[in-house]
Amino acid sequence: MLIGYARVSTNEQETRLQIDALRKAGVDRLFSEKGSGVGPRPELHRALASLQRGDVLVVYKLDRLARSLKDLLALLDSLSARGCSVKSLTEPVDTSSAIGELVLQILGAVAQFERSLIRERCEAGRRAARARGVKFGPRAFMDAQAESAAAEFYRLGLSYREVGLVFGVGYTAARGAVKRALAR
């Protein structure tokens, strides 16, 4: 039996393209969801639970299935032990054969490499922004007068978290405001 799984990363995206391709490929049962690959994926778990010996899990692209090469290989091992295989419609992957497994591992390694490069570029961008003076995180919106009032609340026994709640800022902003006011 062919079991199809489709996923998009955000609620604004649509699974129609994947679903149409999976139906054209002849899937017997279809599982679909919207949500990041990082969060819970209940439909993927349902699809995996429904697989029986000899079944094939069909996906539009491999990146819909796993977060990393390590996750993908673990999933493939698990499915192989159960007598199931995976097929991708847009990549030359069909784990029912040895060459298909090899191609899958090569493509997975390339995808993992690409994600690592993206992560490195993002971090380099963040470092460059910090060097230019860009500050990350929520901004504190407390002027000197509010900081003095925050310090008074702190002196009265409120915690930084409670001071933050009073002024609508986070713990770190409240702590910084109180310390600046006490240093004056």
- Report the sheet with the most strands, covering strand number, pairing sense and barrel closure: 5 strands, mixed
Along the chain, the helix and strand elements come as: EHEHEHEEHHHH
Mean residue pLDDT: 87
The oligomerization state is single chain
| Shape assignment | elongated
Weakly predicted, low-confidence segments = none
Describe the structure.
The radius of gyration is 25 Å and the shape is elongated. The chain has two domains: 2-115, Rossmann fold (3-Layer(aba) Sandwich); 144-183. It has a five-stranded mixed beta sheet, sandwiched between helices. It is 53% helix and 12% strand. The termini are far apart. With 184 residues, the protein is of the alpha/beta class. The mean pLDDT is 87.
Task: Give a concise summary.
The chain has helices at residues 16-24, 42-50, 69-81, 98-131, 144-155, 160-167, 171-183, and strands spanning 2-8, 29-34, 56-59, 85-88, 93-94.
Q: Which labels suit this protein?
A:
184 residues, Rossmann fold, 2 domains, 5-stranded mixed beta sheet
Strand and helix layout:
Elements: E1 2-8, H1 16-24, E2 29-34, H2 42-50, E3 56-59, H3 69-81, E4 85-88, E5 93-94, H4 98-131, H5 144-155, H6 160-167, H7 171-183
Parallel strand pairs: 1-2, 1-3, 3-4
Antiparallel strand pairs: 4-5
Helix pairs in contact: 5-6, 5-7, 6-7
